Amino acid sequence: MIPWCKPLDVIVEMTHVTKRLHDHFMSRLSLNQQRTKFGVLSPVIEHPNFPQDYMDEDAEALNQSLSSPTGSTDSDRRRRTLATPSDDDDVPVKVEYTENTSMLKPTFKYRKAEAARRRRLAIDRRNERRQIVPRSTTDEGVTCSMDRNKTKNRISAASYRENRDKRVSFILNELTQLQNEFPHLQSKPWTPVKKPKSALREGESKDEYRKRTNRESAADSRFHQQQKLQHLTRELARLRQLAQHHRSHEMGGAESTPVVPEGARLKKIYLHFEEGDEANHLTLKLTIPSKWSGATVDRLKEFFLETYNERRPENKVDPNAYHLERTENRVIRGDETIHDTIKNRDDIYVKIGPSTFKHKKDLADEERERAAPKDLVQCKNFGCRDKFNPADNHASACKHHTKPPTFHDTKKGWQCCTEKLVYDWEQFELIEPCAVGFHSTTGIAPPKEERSGFGAPVLVVPAPAPTVKSIDDYNQKNPSTVTAVPKPKPVVVRTDGKAKCVNFGCQKEYVVADNDERACPHHVGAPVFRDAGKHWSCCPKIVKYDFDEFLKIPPCVVTAHTDQRV
């Protein structure tokens, strides 16, 4: 039984120390030396089998083990083979605790440094185990057998290239299958745009030039592979959509899957059926998903009327006998898309009458064309674009405007209806005429306004015309007088050998001696400024709204400079 010891200056006489107590002291030896480092109570152990030189060697071995990646030193191996006392030995052991005042007590700064050191050791051991060489290493004395080319970035780049090639192969196989199924569907070929090789820079050696051009060509190759993958992905999506369209028609579908236009979004509308008795009226609030935005208006009408027939079975209707209209009786054509014609929160009404079409003629249009006579004359009244038969012309046949149209800046309207000015051409065509009368092949001259009172025109009697004197009569009366003839204006000739070009779009000074047939790119026609648009009369299809963009329009002809306009 070992008695309890006081903390200071107490010596315990131990007899018959067992092997187990010896092992316990050996396991706690490392911890005691660390405590000694930070100034805790330092144990002083006196034992025949624990000489002082062994204590010093063990402390040195501990420092080596902390700095070693593997934590195994010669001292650790030697510690296992150290002679230990037997159970029969009666060896006194003296343990003395003294307060070490020369060491500072542990602080947060020391603990933080110790944690950082241990963290660095753990990172080094992990790098050695995984055979990873850090990019920031500057130690030239590393003699470990590691493959410096096996870095994570190189492995990930190779994995990316492998996945990209697999994706390209998969897309090409599916494109081949679609083209075999539908031979008329062909994908657009992808042609890369190769950049020219850069020239040798000033002060650059041939070795540096070779390395730089190799890097540029490698970067261009990676960019082209990425562009090829994006092109094949777009082509695959396009051919999938066309193939689905053909499959739906082959299976007897009434309409293919609509193409979702760009900018499509969810819409909420109100559909009203108000034909016939009030008991048969129906109003539905529909939420149109974005994938329906590319569908036609007739498809929306059929869907609504199918729902109506389910809810009103006693008053079933035929969808082909109705069409859709917006507010103010504005007809919506059946082949127009929902995205272009219907807005969010719109009120749509179902009206009697078959749908009309924008891109194809319906039965009613064909019947009207067959019934119309062939000897028709074009009416030239303002706002009337109808053709009429002179035999059927009457006083209420033509709805037109009495004055010509007016266009100022971006505003459009009619001079007889100045309160109705619009900015859109379609809205301009929808302005209602203000007069009714006969059709005319010559047009109506605008009426002249006669003012009376203040500001009325005053009748002015013109003065008699003066007698024009003849030069021949003057010469006959004065035969001895010399007739003065005006001198022609001298042609201004510049002495510096230069002239100013007068061609449209050029207006530059040039050297006359250097002028040739390829010197002056310019426009043949004069500039035209109409509304807010600007273009050249020789290039009417290229219209710009900004003056700087107008000046950048490329010329259409190339000739020699000239200083005289023809």
**And the CATH topology of the domain at 267-366?**
Ubiquitin-like (UB roll)
- Supply the CATH architecture of the domain at 267-366: Roll
Strand order of the largest sheet: 4-3-7-5-6
What is the SS-derived class?
alpha+beta
Rg measurement, Å: 51 Å
Q: Biggest sheet, open or closed, and with what strands and sense?
A: 5 strands, mixed
- CATH superfamily membership of the domain at 267-366: Phosphatidylinositol 3-kinase Catalytic Subunit, Chain A, domain 1
Tally of helical segments: 12
Protein name: CHORD domain-containing protein
InterPro entries: CHORD_dom (IPR007051), CHRD1 (IPR039790)
Region (Disordered): 63-92, 186-229
Organism: Aphanomyces astaci (Crayfish plague agent)
